[in-house]
């Protein structure tokens, strides 16, 4: 029986942080200027997507990110609030697609789309353990 998701198109999630030193490019190894790092913005985008969708998933299931297509278009300095929103724009089978926007107090700083696939956690963990066991036998 195929999994039927009850994630409503239009569901929205939000995640916010005030940029601190640990969120900057030099701290995460993605540059030398002390502004919000792109990998941190990506993490915020995924976190907002989780808020938008996870509460609708059946017990024992969670979503995993499979695709990100984003732009990071403006720098954000330390001390500025960043708010990221994710909106569910499509649900097809186990795949959920989100539209993303990131804003600081002044500008749109990033946008894009994100796909997440819904998995049965127990079955997924079993496959990961089997993959690891197979790799150990090959060494």
Distance between the termini: 38 Å
Number of individual domains: 1
Low-confidence stretches: none
Order of helices and strands: EHHEEEEH
Strand content: 35-45%
The dominant shape is flat
Kindly describe this structure.
With 139 residues, the chain is of the alpha+beta class. The protein has one domain (12-137): Hotdog Thioesterase (Thiol Ester Dehydrase, Chain A). The chain has helices spanning 25-28, 38-53, 121-137; strands at residues 12-18, 61-72, 81-92, 95-103, 108-120.
Characteristics:
3 helices; Thiol Ester Dehydrase, Chain A; about 140 residues
Give the helix/strand layout.
Elements: E1 12-18, H1 25-28, H2 38-53, E2 61-72, E3 81-92, E4 95-103, E5 108-120, H3 121-137
Antiparallel strand pairs: 1-3, 2-5, 3-4, 4-5
């Amino acid at each position: 029986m195929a999994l039927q998701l009850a994630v409503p198109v239009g569901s929205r999630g939000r995640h916010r942080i005030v940029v601190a030193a640990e969120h900057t490019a030099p701290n995460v190894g993605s540059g030398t200027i002390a502004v919000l790092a792109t990998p941190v913005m990506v993490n915020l985008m995924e976190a907002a997507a989780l808020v938008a969708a996870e509460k609708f998933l059946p017990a024992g299931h969670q979503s995993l990110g499979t695709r990100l297509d984003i732009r990071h278009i403006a720098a954000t300095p330390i001390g500025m609030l960043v708010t990221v929103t994710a909106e569910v724009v499509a649900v097809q089978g186990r795949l959920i697609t989100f539209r993303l926007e990131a804003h600081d107090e002044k500008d749109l700083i990033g946008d894009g789309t994100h796909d997440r696939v819904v998995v049965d956690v127990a079955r997924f963990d079993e496959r990961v353990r089997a993959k690891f066991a197979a790799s150990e036998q090959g060494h």
